[in-house]
Amino acid sequence: MTKNVDIEHMAKLARLKLTPDEKERLSDQMGTILEYIEKLNELNTDEVEPTAHVLGLNNVFREDEPIEKPLADHNPISDSPAHKKGHYEVPQIL
Amino acid sequence: MHRTTITQAQELLKQKKLSSLQLTEAVFARIDQVEEKVQAFAHLTREKALEQAKRADEQIAAGEKAPLLGIPIALKDLICTKGSRTTCSSKILDQFVAPYNATVVERLKQAGAVIVGKTNMDEFAMGSSNENACHHPTMNPWALDRVPGGSSGGSSAAVSAHECVAALGSDTGGSIRQPASFCGVTGLKPTYGRVSRFGLVAFASSLDQIGPLTKTVADAATLMNVIGGKDPRDSTSADVALPDFTQALQKDVKGMKLGIPKEYFTGGINPAVEKAVQEGIRTLESLGMQTVEVSLPHLDYAVATYYIIACAEASTNLSRYDGVKYGYRSEKSDNLVNMYENTREEGFGEEVKRRILLGTFVLSSGYYDAYYLKGQKVRTLIKQDFENALKQCDVIASPVTPYPAFKLGEKLNDPLQMYLADIYTISANLAGIPAMSIPCGFAKGLPVGLQLMGKHFDEASLITVGHKFQQTTDFHTKEAPL
Fold it and tell me: I need a surface site. Which of B105, B268, B323, B362 has the fewest CB within 10 A?
């Protein structure tokens, strides 16, 4: 049995517009992959702590001051595919 | 001349038998000769490289010394380079020029390296074949109808074909070691946190690590000395002293313990690959290493765990590509949300979309505990397996991949089968330990790698064992029939 995934909902959450062909193929493939992942349920992990970071590193704090100014000679807005008068330009929001 | 290693080039440059410009020109002549067949590069930086080489020659003439002075190196195209493109082999970043250098690039430049160009890869480092690249696929120099592996397939093919002296790649689930194995070169994934990821385009931040692809273990040691160490610009880079890895080349392996994980030699491994790996282990025994059987009981769960964690992190990391700040933007949108969706639909390839969707699913409301949290818990078990096994030995030896390089197109339509082939490499990323692939033989003329895995921050032991192996074998000196 292949697991069923609400591919349209996932695509919406991920801001991906899929073609009908992609929807079908990706939905099938994801079902197969998720079914394989179910394998983890063979393991009882009730008493196991999750690992988010292998070295157990937590927050790393520093003074809120720039270490250096690597972008001092660069205006990041100029990297935008569309910008006008020093601002990002995007299509209608509302 | 283009066949030189870093160690040989250093000597020739020092003795003034060779100039950096001659070496760099020889590398580009080789590129002109074979690149059409191999297609290892996403783009070249020839003019800049020749300038850098001239400058290196002036520095050498002035008596300056630096570990990579005048040596041509290639970079995987997800390592940011100021002033030249960093595309990640993705349409969404195809014209992207980073405003800064990655820390590893800064360190290479300080060490005097000449940057040849940026190597092809699977889009956003997602893949094991280099077929998921927006530019073109890369071919295996050993058999042009076969894949070089991935995702650092361009770097491994470029080193194997002598289109650079050495290269950097990145490894999230085997992306340095698997292509190193397929192309017959040396590939080292350092301990998580050993090398700064600042300026590395993020795929899965708790797994990603930059490392060297080289012709010898000795060259890997030289590169590790340059790129390793704490970086204030990467908060996850570890504050652990960086040893001189070239010292590890002098050590003997006699009395060192080599762990053989029994689970890695069962099931679907190709007999010729297993034979080469077993012979490699016997060679290490003959050098005085003592083998002990160890157990890594959760091996079978590594692929499932990896694809939960890697995809979850990827879906988050790749949310930044929205067509606003940099990169590609779709032209055919009438409102903002539409623009995001069209940009991402047109800009990402299918493997990337598959992983974003999978990651979105495992993090989504109602599924988070069942998938993502479960994956993080099994990750703990896998990490503990290695901690236990590495109490009984210094280094673990295993295959890198279940089979040698496969044909282009062979596995493209079955993503799960492609993922399952990562079984031997993925665990080292989940556990955060260092791991290396070194050439140990051939399966019907295709290179086979031996994987060495060690304790956190003990790359030195891998270098000691790998170097000793290469001093007694000649697999790493064999030439691809180009």
Answer: B268
